[in-house]
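User: We ran a pulldown and think these components assemble together. Before we commit to crystallization trials, I'd like a predicted model of the whole complex to look at. Sequences follow.
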Amino acid sequence: MELELIQLKDRCLADLKDVCELKALDNLRIKYLGKKGELTIALKGMGKLSKEERPVIGKLANEVREEIENALSLQKQILDKEEIDMRIKEEVIDVSLPGKKHFSGSLHPLTTTINELKEIFLGMGFSIAEGPEIEWAKYNFDYLNVPLDHSARDLQDTFYYEDDIVLRTQTSPVQVRVMQEQKPPLRIISPGRVYRSDEIDATHSPVFHQMEGLVIDKDITMSDLKGTLNMFAKKLFGEQTKTKFRPHQFYFTEPSAEMDVTCFKCGGVGCKVCSNTGWIEILGCGMVHPNVLKLCGIDPDVYSGFAFGMGLDRITMIKYGINDLRLLFENDLRFLSQFK
Amino acid sequence: MLVSLNWLKEYVDIQLNPYDFGECLTMSGTKVETLTVVSEKVSNILTGKILKIEPHPNADKLVVCTVDLGTDERIIVTAAKNVFVGAVVPVAVDGAIIADGTQLGVSDFRGVSSHGMFCSIEELGMNLDLFSKEIMEGIYILPNGTDPGLDVKKLLWLDDVIIDVELTANRADCQSIVGIAKESAATLNLSLGAFESYNKVESTNEIKEYLNVTIESDLCPRYVAKMLKVKKIEASPLWMQVKLLNSGVRPINNIVDVTNYVMLELGQPLHAFDYHSLDSKKIVIKTTKNEKIVTLDNKERDIDASMLMITNGTAPVAIAGIMGGENSEVTDATSLIVLESACFNKSSVRLTAKKLGLRTEASARFEKGVDPELAIAAALRATWLLEAIGACEVVEGVIDVYQQPVAIKKISLDINWVNHFIGISLSESEIAALLSRLFFNVSSENNGILQIEVPSFRQDIDAREDLAEEVARMFGYDNIPSTIMGGETMIGGKTPVQKYEDDLKNVLVGQGYFETLTTSFTSKRRLSGLNCATPEDLVPLVNPLGEENSIMRHSLIGHQLEVISLNYHQKNPFGHFFEISNTYRKNPKLGELPIEEKKLVLSTYGNDDYFELKGMVELLLAHTGIENPSFISGGSEFLHPGRKAIVSANGIILGEIGEIHPLVVKNYGLPKRTYVCELSFSDLYDCGSMGQKFVELPKFPASNRDLAIQLKDTIPAAEVDAILRKNGGNILESIELFDVYTGSQIPEGYKSLAYALNFRHQDRTLNDDDINPVVEQILAELKSALNAQLRE
Ligand SMILES: [Zn+2]
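Assistant: Here's a predicted model for the assembly, 1132 residues in total across the polymer chains.
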C-alpha cells in the first residue's frame, strides 16, 4: 500500500511535467485527486489495514496528497502567468492611434459673457430681473426722463408695434418695473435683448444685448458707484485693471459718467484693441435721476441710487477679439466651436 | 465739432500741451475724440510777391518769376497759369518741406535754376473740400496787401491743432468757440477773455424806417434784426478765412463769412437777407400753408403748416433756423442787408429739418437749443465785425422782438447733501468756488446752503442733482473716492427658473449641442418656406428694416432651419443646435402688451435620426423631473407627416418634435434629414419637479418579465405603453421597449414589440403569485383594447 501511494505520487508528478495547458492541469487534478480519482481509489484499501498500519499509511496518504496539490498549484501559477503573458503579448495596441471622437457642444460666447458678468454681480448680492422686450413707450422713454421731443423716440431710431408700444431700446424699462413693483433696498441686474433701428454692419445690429444694473437704498453715494464698478472691472478684466470715469450725459442719471478700463490686452500702453489709447470704453453709469425716482414712486429725499449699463455684444467682441458683430448672429459651427 | 486751438487760445491762456489739455477737457466732460495738426510737416514756406514774370528761354510752358521774399529776391520757375505780377503766393524756398514731407532744393528747369516752388493748397496740406475747384487747381493766391517774407505756416494757421470734441445732447451752450472756452477756463481755473462788440451810442432809430418785425407763432421766442449798408462785397480778411477753414467752413464772401464766423464763435446762427429782395417793409415769422420755397442750395422745398417760416408778410423768404430762400439771397448787387439773429423752438426746427431732409450747421445748433439771450450779443458782434472789416456801414437802431424772455433759475444747494450724495467732503467756500468757475452766480451766507443763480446759457441745469454733477466734474470724478456700499446686506442670487435655464443649457452643451443666437425678426416671405398657413396673431412692426425683418417671430424653428442651411452649405458635416429665446404673439386682450413666450428649440442634421433627437428630449425631460412624457403622432405641417409627434406630459402639451418635411427641406436648402423639436420653456419648467429628492435604494430584488406582443403595425407603441402602466399597478417599477420587429416571423401588417417589465415591492420579495395575475390582466386588456396578443 505504501509503495502503491509512492508510485501514484511519482506517476502524477511525471504526468505533470507534460502538462502545458490549464485544462490538462484540471484533468490531471481530477484524475488523481477527484472524487473518483486514483488517490481516492487507492485509499479505499485502507479498511483492510491493521490498526497499527492505518495511522502510518494515513499520514503518508496526506503527505502524498499535499505534495501533489503543491505541485499542481505551482504548475497552475506557472501556467496562469504564461497565459497572461501570452494575452498581453497578443493585446499590444498602437497607443499613438487617435482616440475615439466624442463631441461636446458649447454655449454661445455671448451667453458665456453674460454668465461671467452675472456671477460677478450675484456675488455682490444682486438679483437678476427680467421684463418684456415689447414694451410700453412710457416705460422705455417717459419714466426714464427722456424728453418728449427726443429723437430717440423717432421712427428712424426705435421700432414701433403700436403708437404707444415699442421694442425696448434699452433694458432700463426693467428697472422702472422693479422700482414700481418692489420696495428699496434694490440691487438688480437686467441682462437682455434690445432693439434699435440700425442697419446691420460690423459694429451695429438692430438686435443687440445689454446688461443694466440698479442699486437703490438709503445713503447710496457716487463713491459707492465708483467702488462697485471698480470691483466689477477688476473681477472681469483682472486685479491690475484701472478705471477712468469721464463725465457724460444720460437722461436716466445725474450725475452721469462713462467708465473706461485699462486695455486688458496691452495693460494701457496702447495696442490695436484699444486703438492705441490704452483705454477701452466699457459702460455708462450715474446716480439715478431724481425725476426717475419720483416717477417710480421713490422719494429722492430718502433714497438715492446708481445705475449702469453696458453693451454685451461689444464686451463679448472685445473679450474674444471678434472683429465683426455679424459673426455673433450667423451661428457658423466653425465660429461656435471655437468657444468650448 | 471741430475746435481750433489757436482760436480758443484767444479766449483762454492755455499753456498745457495739446494732449494734456485734451485729457483735461475729456475728464471735465467735453470728450476729445482726436487732436490733429492742420499740416504738421510743412516748414520754411514764405509769402512771396511776384515782381516780374519772364518767358523761359528754352520752354514755352514755363515762366521765370522774380519773387520778393521780404529779405531777398529769388528766381522761381513755374508752369502755373494763375500767377501774375503783384500776386502774393506761398513759396517753398530751397530747404522747405511741403505737406507730403518732400524737401525742396534748387532745381534746374532746362538751364534755369529755380530756388524754390510756388505752392497750391494741396502742397500746403489744407482741407481740399473747403475750396473751389479753380483755387484748388492753381497756385494759392494770398489776399492783396499780404506782406512778403511771412511764415505761411503761422499766417495760415497750418500749425493749429484741430480738436474734435463730442458734445453731449444737454450742452447746447458748448457748440461754439466761446462755449468751449468757458468750459476750458472753468476746467483749468483760468479767466475768460472778452470779444469786441458794436456798442456805439446811437442817436436815431433809422431801422424803423426800413423794417418792422412781427412774430405770429410761439415757436420763435426772440427775433433780433440789425440792418447794414453794404460798402463792398469781397473776400473776407485772411485771418477770418483761416478761422473758418480750421473750423471746417468754406469762406464765401465778407458778409456770409461774418455770419458763419459769429455762429462758430458764439453759437448763434445768423442769416443775412438782401433787403430789397424782401420786397416789403416787414418781416413776419409764422407758419404758412402749402407753400413752396427755393432754398439757397437751389432746391424747391414743399412747406407744410407745421413749419415755421420767415416771410415778408406774404411769401416765405427763409425756413426758420434751417436755410434762407434764394429769393432774398445776398448777391454782389446787394446794397442793404437785414441781419437776423433769432431763437427758434428746438423741436420745431428738428421736425422741420427731418421732414425736409435738410440739416444745416444752423439747424444742428437750433435743434440742441440756443440761448435766447445770445441773440442780441451775436447781432452786435456781427455788426462790429462787418464794420471793422470794412464790409458795411451800420444803420442805426435794432429790432428786438423778445416775446418769451428766459426766466432766471435759482436753486438752493445744501452743502451737506452734495457732499453726502457724491461721497466727498468739501467746504462751503470750496463748493462755491467750483461753481463760480462755471459762471454760476453763487451767494453764500455761510449757513450750509448756497443760493445759486444759473446763467441763461445753462439751459440744462434744473435741479440740485445737476449742480452736484457740476461740483463733481470740477472737483474731478477721478478724485472721488471708491467706497463699498453700506446699507442692508442683500442675498440676491438666481431664481429657480433662472437656475433651471442655465442647467438645461449645460446639459445640452454636454451632449454636443451648440447654442445659437438668432435675431427676433422674421417675415411672411421667410415663413412661407415652412408651407404653413401664417398664424393670425403675429406681431408686425410699424417701421421694420425691410420686409425680411418685418414681424416678430412666433417660433424659433425658422431661424434654426436657416442656421442649419448655412452650416450645411459651409460643408459642416453635421450639427446639433439649441436656443432658448422669446417668441412673440398678439395679445387677444385689447390694451395689453403682446405675449412673450420663452421657448427651447433643438435642431440637428448629419448622422442622426428621429430617435436620436427624441432620446435627447427624453433626457432633458428626465432631467427636468418629468416622468412618462408622451409622444403622440401629430404636429405642424412643416414636419414630415409620418415622423412627427406632439410632446406632452401630465396632460399639458409641451411642444412638438419631428423630421422636417421634404418640401420644406427643399425650400430652405436643408440636408435631406433635418430634425427639430420646439418646447415651451415655461411649461417645461412648470411640469417638472427639479428639486431632486433622494430615493432609498431598494432592499428587495426585482423580478423581470419579458413580453413580446404582436399587434397591427399601425398602432403606436404609446398605446401599449399606456395599457402596461395602467394595469401594472404599484408593483410595476419600470418598462423598457427593447425591440421592435417586423419581418418574416410574423404576419404582414403586424409588428412585434418586446418589453422588459420590472416588478418590485418595497417590503418583500415578489413571487409568481404576485406577478402572474398582473401579467394576465395586462394581456387581457391588450387583447380586448388593441387586439394584441402574446407572441410565443
Ligand atoms: Zn491696448
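The pocket of zinc ion is lined by residues A 263, 265-266, 270-271, 273-274, 278 (CB under 6 Å). That may be worth checking against your pulldown data before setting up trials.

User: Thanks, that helps.
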